[in-house]
């Protein structure tokens, strides 16, 4: 977790670090975790030889990883390893020709929900580039949220839950565009939230989700007129016994204002013309930013850490990107 920095991170600051013509911006990226501090030479493997960051005027960032290890084999002269690779290889910056400060500047503006046309103008980049980087950023937040799925609630805690449908629109001649069901919850005390996409609203789907996201001993508050469409009476009894969960109906005087406010906030954060295949990415952005706010961490620095974990292989897995599609709409970042 990266706590709030005392320094204000702005485009001017980021570009200023870049203009210093030294490793200031690179060092910051290493500090935040989006770049590796230690890179091993693949040519010298299995020997564990660290590469050195050397100046290189041909590189966009002015530096390149180089190995200077001296190797020797039997009956052969000692040879110096000449293996080198780009500073950006295997990182969030790979394959991009944009200056590093502009990419970080994009993330900074993106996490502040700055409009796409403003980002394009501020960074002097094309609309197509803005859309592409919005997609790259959502891949990072999606991976971060998938890995940070912690349970909320607990003994003595109340969690408001609900199911909500996003994206359903009715067009001319009665044609309806299918939306996406989401199951969500919010801890009344801490404000912690969870949300997950539902393929359907059957008890076989909902019960495992309740167990996955809500701690045993939690008191669940819900409008059972809605939830009863998913759970039968025996399902409530099952959860009471197996998961020690109590249920409070809104008819008893409890309210679901927090979860209703959460749905409203999510709706306002989604692009106007949201597509079902890109919905998970936009939802993950909202959850990532909300998590940063609750934990009082700097969004840019936290994003850099998560991007480093994803691209530098700390998770030892590939990102599942089935939830994403190429998007041409300029406002969908």
- Helix count from the secondary structure assignment: 11
Strand order of the largest sheet: 10-9-6-11-12
Shape: elongated
Query: Rg, please?
Result: 24 Å
At the fold tier of CATH, the topology name of the domain at 158-300 is Nucleotidyltransferase, domain 5
Can you identify the CATH class of the domain at 158-300? Answer: Alpha Beta
The count of β-strands is 12
Helix content percent band: 25-40%
Main sheet: strands, sense, barrel: 5 strands, mixed
Blueprint (SSEs and pairs):
Blueprint: H1 11-19, H2 24-32, E1 52-55, E2 63-66, E3 70-71, E4 79-80, E5 84-86, H3 100-111, H4 116-123, H5 127-147, E6 158-166, E7 169-170, E8 176-177, E9 180-187, E10 193-198, H6 203-213, E11 219-222, H7 224-227, H8 233-242, E12 246-249, H9 257-269, H10 276-295, H11 299-311
Parallel strand pairs: 6-11, 11-12
Antiparallel strand pairs: 1-2, 2-5, 3-4, 6-9, 7-8, 9-10
Helix pairs in contact: 1-3, 3-5, 4-5, 5-10, 5-11
């Amino acid at each position: 977790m990266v706590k709030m920095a005392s320094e204000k991170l702005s485009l001017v600051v980021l570009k200023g670090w870049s203009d210093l013509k030294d490793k200031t911006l690179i060092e910051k990226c290493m500090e935040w975790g989006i770049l590796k501090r230690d890179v091993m030479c693949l040519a010298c493997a299995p020997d564990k030889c660290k590469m050195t960051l050397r100046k290189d005027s041909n590189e966009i960032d002015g530096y390149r990883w180089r190995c200077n290890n001296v190797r020797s084999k039997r009956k052969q002269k000692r040879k110096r390893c000449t293996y080198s690779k780009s500073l950006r290889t295997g990182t969030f910056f790979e394959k991009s020709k944009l200056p590093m400060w502009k990419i970080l500047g994009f993330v900074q503006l993106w996490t502040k929900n700055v409009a796409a046309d403003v980002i394009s103008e501020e960074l002097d980049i094309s609309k197509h580039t803005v859309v592409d980087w919005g997609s790259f950023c959502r891949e990072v937040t999606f991976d971060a949220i998938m890995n940070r799925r912690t349970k909320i609630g607990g003994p003595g805690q109340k969690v408001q839950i609900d199911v909500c449908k996003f994206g359903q629109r009715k067009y001319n001649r009665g044609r309806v565009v299918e939306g996406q069901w989401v199951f969500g919850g919010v801890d009344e005390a801490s404000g912690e939230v969870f949300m997950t996409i539902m393929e359907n609203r059957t008890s076989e789907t909902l019960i495992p989700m309740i167990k996955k996201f809500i701690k045993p001993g939690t008191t669940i508050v819900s409008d059972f007129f809605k939830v009863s469409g998913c759970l039968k009476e025996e399902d409530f009894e099952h959860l009471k016994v197996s998961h020690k969960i109590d249920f409070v109906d809104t008819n008893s005087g409890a309210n679901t204002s927090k979860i209703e406010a959460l749905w409203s906030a999510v709706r306002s954060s989604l692009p106007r013309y949201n597509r079902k295949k890109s919905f998970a990415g936009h939802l993950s952005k909202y959850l990532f930013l909300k998590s940063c706010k609750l934990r009082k961490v700097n969004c840019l620095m936290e994003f850099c850490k998560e991007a480093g974990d994803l691209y530098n292989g700390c998770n030892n897995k590939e990102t599942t990107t089935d939830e994403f599609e190429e998007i041409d709409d300029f406002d969908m970042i």
